[in-house]
Amino acid sequence: MAELTYRDAVVRGIAQEMARDPDVVFLGEDVAKAGGVFKATVGLLEQFGPLRVRDTPISEQAILGAAMGAAMTGLKPIAEIMFSDFFAVCFDYIANEIPKGRYMSNGQTKCPLVVRTGNGGGARFGAQHSQSVENWCMMIPGLKVVAPSTPRDVIGLLAASVRDPDPVIFLEHKSLYAVKGEVPDGEILDTLGTASIVRPGKDATILALALMVPRAFAAAEKLKSEFGIDCEVIDVRSLVPLDTQAILNSVARTHRLFTVEENPRLCGWGAEIVSIVADEAFYELDGPPVRITTPHIPLPAADILEDLALPSVDRIVDRVRRSMEN
Amino acid sequence: MAELTYRDAVVRGIAQEMARDPDVVFLGEDVAKAGGVFKATVGLLEQFGPLRVRDTPISEQAILGAAMGAAMTGLKPIAEIMFSDFFAVCFDYIANEIPKGRYMSNGQTKCPLVVRTGNGGGARFGAQHSQSVENWCMMIPGLKVVAPSTPRDVIGLLAASVRDPDPVIFLEHKSLYAVKGEVPDGEILDTLGTASIVRPGKDATILALALMVPRAFAAAEKLKSEFGIDCEVIDVRSLVPLDTQAILNSVARTHRLFTVEENPRLCGWGAEIVSIVADEAFYELDGPPVRITTPHIPLPAADILEDLALPSVDRIVDRVRRSMEN
Amino acid sequence: MTKKPTLARVSASSMNDDIGEQLRLRMYRMQVEIRDAEQRAFDLFLQNLVKGTSHLSLGQEAVAVGFACAMKPGDLSFCTYRGHAHTLARGVPIEAVLGELMQRDNGLMRGKGGSMHLTSEKHGVMGSYAIIGAHLPIACGAAWRAQYKGDSDVSVCFFGDGTTNIGAFHEALNFAAVWKLPVVFVCENNLYMEYTPISEVTAVEHPAAGRASAYGLDSIIIDGQDADEVYRAAVSAYEKARAGHGPSLIECKTYRYSGHSRADPAKYRPSGELDKWLKRDPIKIYRERLLQFGVDERVVTEIEAESKRKIDEATEKCKAAPMPSLDILTTDVYADGGWAWRN
Amino acid sequence: MTKKPTLARVSASSMNDDIGEQLRLRMYRMQVEIRDAEQRAFDLFLQNLVKGTSHLSLGQEAVAVGFACAMKPGDLSFCTYRGHAHTLARGVPIEAVLGELMQRDNGLMRGKGGSMHLTSEKHGVMGSYAIIGAHLPIACGAAWRAQYKGDSDVSVCFFGDGTTNIGAFHEALNFAAVWKLPVVFVCENNLYMEYTPISEVTAVEHPAAGRASAYGLDSIIIDGQDADEVYRAAVSAYEKARAGHGPSLIECKTYRYSGHSRADPAKYRPSGELDKWLKRDPIKIYRERLLQFGVDERVVTEIEAESKRKIDEATEKCKAAPMPSLDILTTDVYADGGWAWRN
Ligand SMILES: Cc1ncc(C[n+]2csc(CCOP(=O)(O)OP(=O)(O)O)c2C)c(N)n1
Ligand SMILES: Cc1ncc(C[n+]2csc(CCOP(=O)(O)OP(=O)(O)O)c2C)c(N)n1
Ligand SMILES: [Mg+2]
Ligand SMILES: [Mg+2]
């Protein structure tokens, strides 16, 4: 056991996979010599050399296109897109190329790659460097989408993503990079498509992802201690594949559903899951399923405004409490 | 009154607005001399001249970027992106630039433009030319999103979009271009954010958009005549602004909700509306709200496969009937 | 025909040059087969047996054949929606291509991809891409793999003149040059994007060659109507790539006889333009050259007849082939063969 | 300092040239104020009064000042995240800029945009864009409006060397050239993208000028440390644009003294590189020139002192300013002032 930051877990996760498989290669802007803008790739160049860890021009289309071509022909690339907001400049690869080749070719081609990116708000970077884009990815057929909330999950899910035969979008949360957590020694390998119950509870189910997980957890603790409401908190971890069973099972026990999402409100993963539950577990629900989200606005830069925008512990507590009182 | 195709309605709508306001300009690939790949812009060059109707290089980023810069400084551009799938190559403008400038500048800048595009399936064009991308747009804060289903709505909503002070994504359905409808003479101007009840009914509410509207209507007729189920069919028309009241009112009368969506299943507009209704009208619902969607797959090219993928009249009938029987 | 194309004026003695008779016959056969197959595809449109859209390369066959015939097995082709010719030129059976256009179960992708996405991994056809420019970076990636693994194959990426104005072109060219990747970019300049002349939307006269220096590359323009010239340009670019000297960008002057796609009657062309190009038809040029070289006309005629037989046979097989079975709708979204995004 | 920069070796008599004394004093004042304001911003980081990120142009002031001072009112600037200098150079009050960096209610956008998105419509600063390359096409659009309406303004778009490798650069340059738009593209080549030397990721030596011919444009490289040279290049590009002769692409050789952003100690720079550039400091060069021209040193010193006073005053005002009120969180998403996406 070691205590590691989420940031260092990224380095260790990549290193674990590169050490295991020489076909794993890594490319991105400022990732090699400089070790990445978030310092989440420090030391990889030294460990694996300039043929496997490569700095690129500012050419996101070339980065993802090259990763795709390499994946189609035998490598297992990890590509970094520095901020997830920049998915917009290479979205053709995310939406039209990487996820569709296998289907269009009737199974002839493959695309085993991982796109890692810094996602989410909280760093006061403003509207073009703070977005949560999990719904940009979840809505695209053919992708897998993962978003870890702890250092341990970073390593285990990253390893699972690299070994997965399908393309995986791996969303690292910028505001979690500095967070520490216990990580076992040795190889860590997790399973995609498995949610995890981070706090059992019987009165309501709260679903959360990435930075929202610790907030949902803190809110649940507060709801219990201050209002006697006992919430089950589930870290969704993987949006595709989605652990629908874990979610439906939880709702079948608690009969209430809350989602805590950082992406702007419309067409978020919360909407998807609420719709699944409303359809498939309608008669289990004792009250309206509620989405707690960032409002449907671009994100502001100022700290007091950004803090107001993202779901906070207090907002979660307040929203759950009011809803449970009705 | 004249009978017009949806395609000709596009021409008339653009012409109506260009004739009214010299600041309305139009640009896109092959739109001027050739009149557009869907022949939906034929005659505009002749009528308004080469300064107002302009062919561009194959440079979607330049097209939308130029439209934005022109809009910020006083014009009212209409930009055509030939197929909505190509939003992916200019998604930075759709997701990060066009919708965020006003907010980031604290209201200093404006961006009154319309992006027109051919959206949707049914033409056997395969996975990169058939997509329904309404959710790609609806999920972005700051955009308005419109999708007409009739020639009359094409003109009225296009006029409203051009006159709107905000950026509007105007989704024309490729498989509707040849469809005819009655259109009144003279200027037509409609209102964004208004859904329309195309068939009143008392047993269930069916929401649909664009190509799915005639299908939902036909399904409703069949449900009534064959199974005695009387469905209200609402043409949502505008996803943003969303006529939530019309939807909630209808559900308050029928107590059942179905959405018929062409976009792939995950994080679609159906999920958004189902979630709104499940939250705000939970106690009005007599049964689970159901989404009828294209499966979450890339679209196939072959006609029998594509027909199987998109929601069909029979699938709608079947799904509604089974759900209403339970 | 009286006036002979300049490039066909060669002496019979030069038949045993770097190209030689066998290869020339192969290149002729391939050009004829592609021409016939595409003309058949066009006929099948008219009978409504080819559905959806389709983009023919009639008139551009020499480019496809010259580049393909210079390839080694294992070399990779990346094509566009206008990819029938390049796909056939790699040896993909005509039946599989026509079957795909006709949306039959014997199609290359059983109807799932359609005419714009022809892919035959085992022939090195790594896909046909329908979003302008998308495949240029992808070809870079395949070339990166070859470089990294020490594989000796070359990735060859075909695209049109209009494609040179999209961002992905720029990113790919710079990327390939900086990383010295074994990739060859082939611009088929057929003078038009869809319906708009390339000259009206491009800042330089030669849309590809005029940009080469921006990536530190040589400016190369070749006659795309002459399979021999194409072949030689291909050989030298492939050699450069295999030797580790990086990418090439080759602009081929060519012309498409038919409209951009099935929907296009090509009325935008100035009168006489098509006729001018028909005089430089690649198959005509090549046929004359073979005869000048002293190839017996009966050999040539037999190649032509055999092509017709092959196409007829393929057509009949496709007509008789069943439609794809409906259960493939949801197969092969993911590597496990299925589409399950949830449990 | 003993060795004088070459470009400052001018005779006093040439003071009354095309630039003249008044403008030179204005350009000096502006460079000093920008330098002081950015240095203050840096100090305020250290005190944790500037939050989020911030990208300084210390060392690059002459580019901003030369281009801005050659503009007429109504000309438009399109900047990047590294946009403080360009914004101040258009006359935006220091208080408004510092206020935005400090996220105060007196900030240019009341804290909603932040340091990377400085915008002052009334000063012609049409936004600072934080996605690499995005504003090049946008500037084309503003120029298109001028062309269409017969307005005489020029759109000027600033960006870095690293930006020349992204797709939007290519699309914008070609588009501007084909449409002959009155737009001037200014590449500030400061040798680095974030931390990676531009030479390691670019196929040509001059990332902008080496691409000019791909758009039919002249290859222009200027000394970005000399405001006079910058000013003259700007004037001639603006004249060309206003005369309807289309866009220009100008590469300015310059250097940033600090790291890429607040987070960057700039350890990747070879030792001695910074010192070499400090010797060519634009403010030093310009100060010496003024003295050589015979400007009284007291005038220069007074400009410097006044700048300090202005900055101090602005800083105090910002420190005293309230935080933005929380209700602006949801204002100005749409033109009606609000954010309602539903009824
Ligand atoms: C990003 C994108 N924009 C537009 C199109 C529509 N489109 C398809 S082919 C084509 C013209 C391409 O011209 P060129 O590159 O010269 O190739 P050609 O068709 O002449 O072979 C266009 C504009 C597209 N498929 N993708
Ligand atoms: C599309 C995109 N990719 C990457 C980044 C991250 N990024 C911000 S600044 C920068 C370096 C830009 O270098 P250059 O163009 O030389 O400008 P400079 O910062 O040197 O002024 C990068 C890579 C971004 N903002 N947008
Ligand atoms: Mg062409
Ligand atoms: Mg730079």
Structure description:
The complex is a heterotetramer, with 2 copies of chain A (326 residues) and 2 copies of chain C (343 residues). Chain A has 326 residues and is of the alpha/beta class. Chain A folds into 2 domains: 2-183, Rossmann fold (3-Layer(aba) Sandwich), CATH 3.40.50; 196-325, 3-Layer(aba) Sandwich (Rossmann fold), CATH 3.40.50.920. In chain A, 37% of the residues lie in helices and 21% in strands. Chain A has helices at 6-20, 44-48, 60-72, 91-97, 101-104, 134-138, 151-163, 212-227, 244-254, 269-280, 303-309, 313-325, and strands at 2-5, 24-28, 53-55, 76-83, 114-119, 144-146, 168-173, 180-183, 196-199, 204-208, 231-235, 238-240, 257-264, 290-294. The longest helix of chain A is centred in the last third of the chain and has 16 residues, at 212-227. The radius of gyration of chain A is 19 Å and the shape is globular. The mean pLDDT of chain A is 98. Chain C has one domain (18-322): Rossmann fold, CATH 3.40.50. Helices cover 39% and strands 10% of the residues of chain C. Chain C contains 10 helices and 6 strands. A 6-stranded parallel β-sheet of chain C has the order 2-1-3-4-6-5, sandwiched between helices. The radius of gyration of chain C is 20 Å and the shape is globular. The termini of chain C are far apart. Chains in contact: A-B, A-C, A-D, B-C, B-D, C-D. At the A-B interface, helix 4, helix 6 and helix 10 of A face helix 4, helix 6 and helix 10 of B. The structure holds thiamine diphosphate (TPP) (2 copies) and magnesium ion (2 copies).
